[in-house]
Amino acid sequence: MVAVAFLRAVTKRIGPSGAIWVSAFVVTLGSALVPTAVAAGDEQAAVDEQSARQPPFTERVFPINSAPDGWTILRDSYVASPDAKRVAYRVVRAVKGAYAQAVVSDNRVGRTGTIVFGPTFSPDSKRIATAVINGGRGLLDVSGRSMTRTPDPVSAPIFTPDSMHTAFVAREAKNEFVVFDGKSQLVVYDEVPKETLAFSPDSQHLAYTAKRGDAWFVVLNGQEGQAYADVSQPVFSPDSQRLAYWALKPSGLWVIVVDEQENQLVAADDQAGLWFSPDSTRLVGFAHRAGRWHAVVDNRFERGYDALGHGSVVFSPDSKHLAYGAMDGRRWKVVVDGERVGDYEALLSGSLKFSPSSKRIVFAARDDEGRWFVVEDGRYHGSYKRIAGDSIQFSPDSQRLAYVAQDETELAAVIVDGQRWALSQGVEKLAFSPDSKHIVWVAREGGFSRAYVDGVSSAFAFERMVPGASLVFGSMDQCNTVVMRRPGPVFFRLELQMRPDDGAIDRYAHPWVIGASDRDATGR
């Protein structure tokens, strides 16, 4: 979520100096949305007002799910599908003095029992997985189809990228193991950290870390690698042909292991992550040696720093360039292909990005007066109280730049091409159209949220986007998202159709018109 309804800084500590890489996140302003009755004349006036502005889009609203009869939707259990067309959520009802739970999607109630994990959508949005305790045993319910019963699930199920297979961690007695497609793998361990479970991008391989006694392993396709005193999260290359991780030797040194071969050229007394380039040919890791933190790029130690920004490692899309944040003498710099850029009090996590063309770079930094600004291709612009780092994005053609910022009024502003387009209580999500001609966001004003296209608001008002929802372009000129209203809650798919350049105007005709924004297309 890239809202700036309220931002506050948290820190990620890396390195002995306790230096910080500043991260921003959001606490959304909470207020219940109650459908407002609008008199017929007022509704028509609102429609006329909105139509008179000739908005650059038309909108359609489709009701999705609601609570089935006899069931109550559990608060904050809802999740949106990746394609922004479906919603799934947990429901509960009393049955013979006890409570039964289930997951609902497309108005269909799934397996009943105690829901311990899920619902989780598959990447293609067609399947939903839920871990359920039923009759004292666990089971995996995938889109209403019960699979083999398993011991107690201890992690949410994950899907392969192709959406065909699932895996999760389960426990029986004191043993933990992985369940693949509902079938328990035969090898058991003392511990299988659930966050390490990962499928390869081509969906053909499954890797995770596991502990037995004092030994740690990386397990690939059920086969244990070499035993170590500790191992890091295994990382697949984008082409799925390589697997890399850090491993702690008995000597107390960490080494990089690629395809179960130790790289003796790289040894460190501490480590902080590994990253492959998009073309899978390059590998970078953060390593601590002799009191300094280094980026190890293609087996070569770069210059040492007091701290490195763990969340800042970015390869250009063409894999030719590498950038990351580094702190030296309590001043932060951006390192691009080994060259240091700038001198800042702090850098904003999630803000460092290359353009799709790989020719441009952007990041956000803070000066000594505590003001945040954006550095775009070496040019400074803006001076803000806060910036949402993950909102900063280039358009697909790499020519435009947009982000969300906040000034002293505590209002959120959408900044597009250096111009302020809107002010609101909060902004969540921001997306360019595939042809880069339009920009869409969701903003909150006066207790309601609306979608905006090129600064013009939708007529449909809602409480907020469904958690996990995005602004998804299904085609060059059509954007979808899923939103919710209370009481209920009830869920809707909001479809925004970009208007062709023929000047045609359609009238809005749905019963939820609350009124139109009084801002023009520039947000003034």
Radius of gyration: 25 Å
Q: Tell me about the largest β-sheet.
A: 5 strands, antiparallel
DSSP strand content: over 45%
Quickly count the helices.
1
The tally of strands reads: 53
Q: Residue share in helices? A: under 10%
The SS-based structural class is mainly beta
Distance between the termini: 24 Å
Mean pLDDT level: 82
| Spatial shape | flat
Low-pLDDT segments, ≥5 res? 1-52, 502-524
Describe the 3D structure.
It is a single chain. The protein has 524 residues and is mainly beta. Strands 3, 50, 51, 52 and 53 form a five-stranded antiparallel beta sheet that branches. Strands 4, 5, 6, 7 and 8 form a five-stranded antiparallel beta sheet that branches.
